[in-house]
């Protein structure tokens, strides 16, 4: 008796999707489904191709339901079904799968029910790497951000009370109460200035100018806090990635944590595709390279030498003659760590053992190349 084909298909699907934020198929389904949802609201286009639009929408919805069921099944098999179901990802998957069918089942008009497909866009969120950094920034800077929010609300309420006092006699309809003036305060403080409600008294206009200036200051504070924190978080992530790469290079393996941290601050990473020329013979050299991953080929007179992960090159131009002595090209996709001339001299001064190792290797290569 042959075994059912369902389990292998599910196993293959889980293997391809469970460990990733979003599969290529899911990206295509989200883009296609949202596009069809938008087309659904354009009556002439929908009337002309409603069969195709409906079919594509149902196909996308079927994919999201299938994906949700598979993920849920996989989570329960791993004894974390409840954790997945209540997680952000699980809730997005569940809403994406159930919102439209539930709306249609409850009697919503199809053109209105399918608008809930907008929730499908949230499935893209886990695949956006910068959002994790942004979430960490918001958590770390929650105190300053909330402080600025309090200032914003204070200015909002105080300006509403002040303009009510100044304008209530001149414009009783627009500024007759504090709740009514809140609309003007929000519009003015955000410097949108719709112009539907404006003060007419001299003092009211002076107040409006001050409120607009305060709005610029408040939003400038928010922008500055977020920009500074995001830049710091980006530097932190880059440092950790470079640290991980540096620690895997055999040349730096003997260094302690403090020395690796020192080296990490100096190095910059470079990802290169295959057959990319890194160094051209005769050019002035201002940096050396360490191979973190990949392979390069050194084109010497009469022979070619291959250098793999852990090797370094370009140091001879920094130790003596500043002209490159050979062409060097990647033979496959490679990750290189680059050390500039100024940092090279600082590193050699701080770590004489590294300087000695590099000097010995440079002399050995010089003898080989004669």
Automatic annotation (TrEMBL):
The keyword Zinc-finger does not apply. This is Cyclic nucleotide-gated ion channel/potassium channel family protein. It is a multi-pass membrane protein. InterPro entries: CNG_cation_channel, cNMP-bd_CS, cNMP-bd_dom, cNMP-bd_dom_sf, Ion_trans_dom, RmlC-like_jellyroll. GO terms for molecular function: cAMP binding; intracellularly cyclic nucleotide-activated monoatomic cation channel activity; potassium channel activity; protein-containing complex binding. Keywords: cAMP, cAMP-binding, Cell membrane, Ion channel, Ion transport, Ligand-gated ion channel, Membrane, Nucleotide-binding, Potassium, Potassium channel, Potassium transport, Transmembrane, Transmembrane helix, Transport. SUPFAM superfamilies: cAMP-binding domain-like, Voltage-gated potassium channels.
């Amino acid at each position: 008796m042959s075994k059912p084909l369902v389990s292998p298909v599910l196993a293959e699907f889980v293997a391809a999707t469970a460990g990733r934020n979003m599969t290529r198929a899911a990206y295509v389904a989200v883009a296609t489904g949202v596009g069809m949802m938008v087309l659904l609201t354009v009556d002439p286009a929908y009337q002309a191709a409603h069969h195709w639009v409906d079919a594509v929408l149902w196909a996308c919805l079927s994919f999201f339901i299938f994906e949700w069921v598979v993920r849920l099944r996989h989570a329960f098999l791993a004894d974390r079904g409840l954790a997945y179901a209540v997680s952000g990802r699980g809730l997005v998957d569940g809403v994406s799968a159930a919102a439209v069918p539930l709306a249609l089942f409850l009697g919503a008009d199809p053109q209105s029910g399918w608008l809930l497909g907008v929730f499908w866009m949230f499935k893209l969120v886990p695949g956006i790497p910068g959002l994790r950094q942004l979430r960490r920034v918001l958590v770390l800077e929650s105190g300053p951000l909330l402080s600025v929010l309090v200032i914003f609300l204070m200015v909002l309420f105080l300006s509403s009370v002040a303009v009510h006092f100044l304008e209530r006699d001149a414009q009783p309809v627009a500024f007759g109460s504090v709740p009514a003036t809140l609309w003007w305060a929000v519009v003015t403080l955000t410097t949108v200035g719709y112009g539907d409600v404006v003060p007419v008294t001299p003092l009211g206009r002076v107040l409006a100018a001050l409120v607009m200036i305060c709005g610029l200051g408040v939003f400038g504070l928010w922008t500055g806090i977020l920009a500074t924190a995001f830049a710091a978080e980006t530097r932190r992530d880059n440092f950790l990635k470079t640290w991980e790469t540096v620690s895997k290079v055999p040349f730096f393996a003997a260094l302690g944590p403090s020395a690796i941290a020192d080296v990490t601050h100096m190095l910059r990473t470079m990802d290169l595709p295959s057959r990319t020329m890194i160094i051209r013979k005769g050019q002035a050299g201002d940096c050396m390279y360490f191979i973190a991953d990949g392979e390069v080929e050194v084109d010497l007179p009469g022979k070619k030498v291959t250098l793999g992960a852990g090797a370094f090159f370009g140091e001879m131009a920094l130790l003596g003659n500043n002209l490159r002595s050979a062409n060097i090209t990647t033979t496959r996709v490679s990750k290189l760590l680059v050390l500039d001339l100024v940092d090279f001299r600082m590193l050699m001064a701080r770590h004489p053992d590294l300087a000695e190792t590099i000097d010995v290797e440079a002399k050995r290569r010089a003898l080989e190349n004669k």
